[in-house]
Amino acid sequence: MTCETLSPHTCAGMAVALGEPDLPVVYVAKFREYGILVGHGPTYQVIEHCPWCGQQLPSSLRDEFFDRVERMSLEPESSDLPLDFRSDAWWRIRSRE
After folding, report:
1. pLDDT digits (tens, 9 = 90+) for 38-66
2. d(CA 23, CA 21)
């Protein structure tokens, strides 16, 4: 699981939390998904609202990711998967179009 700090929602509290490795808050850029780690990871519970400011977080793109991969007749870990689907580029590029 890749957790990144460059997220679409960055209130001050969330920005600090995502930058602190000891806090159980994660942002998974590939799915545009926020969560709270369960146990010692890598499992996390998806959250829909920022715990600090209460703002609704951008919706997860997990289902859309897997739908698109399936339409390409590929597996998510396939070596034939286009490079942009190995990061958040697949949805960032399309959101600018």
Report:
1. 987 689 999 999 999 999 999 999 999 99
2. 6
**pLDDT tens across 60-74, in order?**
999 999 999 999 999
Write out the two tokens for 42. 């890598």
Rounded CA separation 44/96 (Å)? 29
Question: Is 18 in a helix, a strand, or coil?
Answer: helix
Q: What letter represents residue 89's amino acid?
A: A
Instruction: State how far the Cα of 48 lies from the Cα of 77, in Å rounded to an integer.
Output: 27
DSSP string, 30-74: GGTEEEEE-TTSS-EEE-SB-TTT-PBPPPP-HHHHHHHHHHTT-
- Residue 60 near residue 45, CB atoms below 8 Å: no
Q: What are phi and psi of 37, to 5 degrees?
A: -60, 140
